[in-house]
Amino acid sequence: MRTPVFELHIQPMFRSIDRAHMTFFTDLWDYDSVVANADDILSRIDGTGMPPDETGGPWPDEWIAVFRRWHASGHKRLQLGTATFAFSHTGPNNSVTATGTLPAAGFNGWLQLEKETDTAKTYVLYYEAPDTPVPGTPPAFALKERYPDSDTRSVFARDSTGVQQLH
User: Fold this and answer.
1) pLDDT at 21
2) 49: Cβ–Cβ under 8 A, 6 or more apart, which residues?
3) 1 contacts 65 by C-beta, under 8 angstroms
4) Which residue ranges make up each domain of the chain?
5) Which pTM does this prediction carry?
């Protein structure tokens, strides 16, 4: 069974209403805050009827099991990758491309739309480590996201070196 990852499996389970009601205690969308308070969070969601019905209702048993497994397995999270980014316009599409080499064999990488506003969109490059080390040479990658050329917003890319404007 796959090890749960904070950005993929844990953070999305915390609804905005959960976050708003827990700001006195912790920021449920912040990895470090959730790790630091994982035992307390688990005690609140595990069989206590928390969150209460008037604020979204308790988590399903499956969500609690995923959180418990994530906590017990060491709080896995994604890594920010490093790449060379390019913006291009071909036919009816704009493209954002990230090229580079994964940190080790067995890693996965992808571009993800992280944020959109009326004037800009930001992509982030993530790496996910395998649950167990994989022998071999780190592979090269070329990751591409396409969107319609009618979208004329500014485009930014974020990786481990920071944020850069592409278009």
Assistant:
1) 83
2) 58
3) no
4) 6-72, 79-165
5) 0.83
